[in-house]
Design a protein that fits this description.
alpha/beta, 9 strands, five-stranded parallel sheet, four-stranded mixed sheet, TIM Barrel
Length: about 300
Amino acid sequence: MTLPDDYLKYPKRQHGMDHDLYPWSNLFDRKPVSWPEGAGVALWITISGEFFPLTPNTGPLRAPGHMATPYPDFRTFTTRDYGNRVGMYRIMKVLDSLGLSASVNMSSDLTTRAPMLVEEFKSRNWEIIAHARNMNDVVHGETPEDTEQDIIDRTLDDLSNNAGIIPKGWMSPARSESYATPSLLAQSGLEYVCDWGNDDMPYLMTTEGGPIHAMPYTHELEDRHVLQNLGQREEVYIEQIIAAFDRLSAEAKDHGGRVLHLALTPYIIGQPFRIWALKEVLNRILEKGAVWNATGEEILSAWQNAQTPETA
């Protein structure tokens, strides 16, 4: 028995997406972007400033790195605390020695639990990306909107009232969203979100709450993913980043600026036997030249300027 001809015909098939958040777009057909300093690649470094409560959240999902054994899981809790007490400072030393800046996706609980650490970020003019109150604030498709809005409001209040920080960016714990997340973030005044990993460049989202941008978060090069989840050696981690940089640099010559995003986790890359790999890969990138180190808000601003008709 053969299928009738109309079986494979779908009347709604068209060139586009099945939602209204953003249109379909081929990266290589877009208007070229020029970064400052004539750079082909913008180097965006993000560092996780996370607080994991000893009592984890209930529900269908826990953030990666959360408690793993029955309460009280001091083994995991103190390992995560190592990142903020030790690993973070090793990363600071590396970036300071190379004159590089970063964006910190930070739990707002750190403004009261580790205010000295927040002052270190601010003294370096690093950007703070709102990262909920702590790693228990995971939302998903069944999270009520008022609950999610309360998380956003209390996070922004903590950052503003305790540390004078007005963030432009947001990263959800576990990068997990509800259907309402982009809209709630936009109507709360956030300008970009780091939860989506479907591009190498920023792009605009249109939501009921207003416009918001997705920044290119590169999960595949995240230290947690490469070194811990995949168990690869530091030498492989370095070569993958350099390969990405070389490819993006080559594309930039014909298609405009690109973004290389490096996501760092202090309790992973900040270990004494690994921190050398961070310095090595950053040194190799800087030696290649034509790179612009910038925070997320600086990259988004430059990208937005390139979208105006005057710069076409």
